[in-house]
Amino acid sequence: MDWDIVIGIETHVQLKTKTKQFSGASTSFGNEPNSQGCLVSLAYPGVLPVLNQEAVNCAIKFGLSIDAIINRKSIFARKNYFYPDLPKGYQISQFELPIVGEGKLSILIDNHTKDVRILRAHLEEDAGKSSHGLSHGKSGIDLNRAGTPLLEIVTEPDMSSAEEAVAYAKKLHDLVQWIGICDGNMQEGNFRCDVNVSVKKKGSDVLGTRREIKNLNSFKYIKQAIDYEVNWQIETIEDGGLIEQSTILFNPDTGETKAMRSKEEANDYRYFPDPDLLPLIVTEEDMLTIKDSLPELPSEMQSRFVKDLGLSMYDASEITSNKDVADYFIGMINEGASAKLSVNWIIVNLFSRLNDEEMSILDSPVTFEKLADLILKIEDQTISNNAAKKVFEVLWKNPEESVEGLIEKMGLKQISDSSEVEGLVDQVLESNANMIDEFKSGKEKAFNALVGQVMKASKGKANPSQVNEILKKKLSN
Amino acid sequence: MTISQEDIKKIAYLARIKISQDESILLEKKLTGIMNLIDEMQKIDTDSIEPMSHALDINQPLRKDEVSESDIRKKTMPLAPEAEDSLFMVPQVIE
Amino acid sequence: MLNLSLKQLSQNLNDKTFSSHELTEFFLSRIKKYNKQLNAFITIDESSSLSMAKMADDKISKGEHKPLTGIPIAQKDIFCAEGWRTTCGSKMLENFIAPYNATVIQNFNDIDAVNLGKTNMDEFAMGSSNETSYFGSVKNPWNLDCVPGGSSGGSASAVAARLAPAATGTDTGGSIRQPASLCGFTGLKPTYGLVSRYGMIAFASSLDQAGPMAPSAEDCAMLLNTMASHDHKDSTSIDHKKEDYTTNLNHPIQGLKIGIPKEFFGDGLNASVQKIIEEALDKYKKLGAELVDISLPNSDLAIPVYYVIAPAEASSNLSRYDGVRYGYRTKEYDDLMDMYFKTRQEGFGEEVKRRVLIGTYVLSAGYYDAYYLKAQKIRRLISNDFKQAFKKCDVIMGPSAPSVAFGSGEKKEDPLAMYLQDIYTISTNLAGLPAMSIPAGLSSNLPVGLQLIGNYFEEGRLLNIAHQFQLSSDWHLKIPEGIS
After folding, report:
1. What domains does chain C contain, in order, with CATH numbers?
2. ipTM of the complex, rounded to two decimals
């Protein structure tokens, strides 16, 4: 039996604003409990919400970056339910008329692009936090986070594998940071995904019942959870069981998904328009102002790099995955370094170092100016690629050094003087007559061995392409 | 529209209000009476009418994103039925 | 001091005939004398009131005072006043000391008026007789066996018995106007959005409005000057040009067109009340006004619509009372759910519970369109009725309540009968229009109120029209026997 997987994702993005969605309390993270619990955040009798302008701007920025419809009029609604971390007993959200309508985000999967349709994105507020097991049988409620602005982004069920789901989540994660609306710190809960998973018989039009895996805050968990859930659903159906629509949690320790314990009836949220808030109107002027403030979008930049700089789609995508990386790259090519080499060095050499030390590119000890410098020295044949790698390692540990200085100090200047190289080639040919014979009798490998000998004789400093050229010439005589 | 015991049970649950059996029976009559009053609304056709949420035709004002509130735990913690180390204490929340 | 208007009191303070301290003490001693019988006040804090009076006297001596500086004003216990117990008439907030000032309270504080005390009210403003308060029923000073009306019954009783020269109230379905009618004084519900709702404990957010309650229209105008303000903390607060509501009180009303809705004079209106209203309208004719017949065809649907919208909004507004962060929490509970259920069962009274349940029901899955949405549509029709009517007239008049004050306990067990008390007042809340009740006569020695309904932001005009009536009548000056 072949199965299709159907996945839709709802992402809660914490907006990068100084204050909460409906009050002027600070949104900063990691402070003493309830120190950011203002009167409105704590839902005292008589308090009222007032909407954060910056949160609205963030939503519009997002809508513009996914080519979405921006609803000129949107309405706030109350989602009613009881939970200790929800002080009002309702969450202010948007229901029938969200601020952002249909849009799309394209992902790169197996070297081809796929559009994931975004159904809507709406503004709402975050809940507080509960800490468990402090005193016996009690939970402690911290409302610092209550009221933090969120943008909930909802896709159509367009993804058909865990890989696609992760690709979407990563792309979205990059995008919201790129346009400056979210810090993307998943450990701090800035970016949380609820993943809806269902399976259906291959090619069937009938969708299966979906289950919702809540609050996944890492890409690794998203993949693990989906893989487990899909297997579980398929096994259940094949065993003759039925899938019940439910909310489930992923346990990272066991790698399993499990339906939430509460046997409550499905929550009836009794949505109705919030009478304390008025319709949110976005004017043409607002739209233009915000559009102007948007940086070049990653997709635009990617296309530009492919077209103007001749980068491959994959490379262009990698280099524009993150605004800081893109800025670094642009910095390098502005210094004159070639696009292709710059991309390679960033993606291969720089990224591997950054990953090892869990650093972001902003903290890289090797600045884009210095790396560009290094690349230019490869391009003008001053040093070989291998030599450059050595310089890079030293530069990483000694960022105050200059590229030229290190090349001198480490004596890595490539020998590009053809007469000098000729001399070395002659030297090697003289002492390796048997290799010459082998080459002449058809063994190609012997040529490489001879090149190797020359490089060794030059202590790695000979320009490899020159060596190749001269050796070929001499051997063909 | 009659409100049944089943209805009362459901809405009392949603509203988190404990209603005893006796109270529920008393409520059934009173609430049904109110619903009958409300059902008067059905006698008029409103298909083409726009709902009215607010008296006046004005838009949502926007607030500048600047911190204007400070730490008021000195005021808020003493009002709590149970607080410990600046946390509001409640019976254990079970996921 | 007993029979002086706010204007006169203000003048006296200005002239230093007496001090705010003396004035406040005077009313505090009246409260001490009569509150046991009337139960108009829930909280009195003599030292706080007197220290506010001292500060006022200080301002007066420096010549830095405003018209209401030093005037003691009774505050409905629905307004959060920092440091004062604020109960909203409920066990839920029995010991709640408000951590901040409502904007209305702050406005009074800013001009150094004196907080005379917090008045009794129907629990969470739900009621028309002040019999649902956790703190006991309030009595009508005109007849202690009768109700003062509600929900602002405490403020009403206090003003009628002159335990306070003025008070604040709130009006969601008639809760200022109906008590003003039943207790024989002047009450005004402003245009929705004119007075900030920040700090005013919410009942039905799209209908609630705070307003003044005092013997005369002139008094109310002075109070409105302080109460009305644009507030950034209330998104529904209107940025209306600041007006002085006392300046146009003496405009002549010659040629004023008064619309008389036929729907306000049908069955259900007590005959003697009708007679008094007709006499009042006659008086207006003598003052130069013209009566015009109008119709508000959807009036009969106002009550069903109100009893969908108000409970729906209330059911959501009252969800915050859960025993977690403030207020009442039940003593014994097994777990979180148990705590919620018992806290809300014990903390809320019967009427509140009924309305929360109805509100929950009409918003629940499958019912939203048939009830809430339908109600909001009919609301527009009701509002349109007024728009049409105001094309033909300048002001609309009729009774404020269908009868005089009824006996305590008479309607308590019959919610529907109680709801019909608001039959003439509710539609104006739904439309958001300003409206007043002014005393128009006595029937069996119980007051009857005339209601005036104006177009949006025409408070000044309403007060003018009311004032002209009061210049040539003295119903608003009458004080019940036994209280003087």
Report:
1. 6-255+458-477 (3.90.1300.10)
2. 0.96
